[in-house]
Predict the structure.
Amino acid sequence: MISDKVKLTAKDILEKEFKSGMRGYKPEDVDKFLDLVIKDYEVFHQEIEDLQQENLRLKKQVEEAGKQQRSAAPPQPSGTTNFDILKRLSNLEKHVFGNKLYD
């Protein structure tokens, strides 16, 4: 996953050797800075791993919730539609009130 995109590991940074020149940087300063970079790198790597695990867990939860929702779907009404209900109501009104409603 992420390891395919990242070129350096904390170990690579730790084991990096620099050649010293006449007017080069102080090796102690470089080592201190690289130590900070390594610590941050390890924290970032751990955070990425944690987020990837959480992402997988949440995807599974969503998938399971979808399965439960599909299996717990309410049964369809037995052929009764709004049109059927309105037709019945109209017939009932005609029977109760007679033709007085429609005059």
User: Anything to note?
Assistant: DSSP finds three helices and no strands in the chain. The radius of gyration is 36 Å.
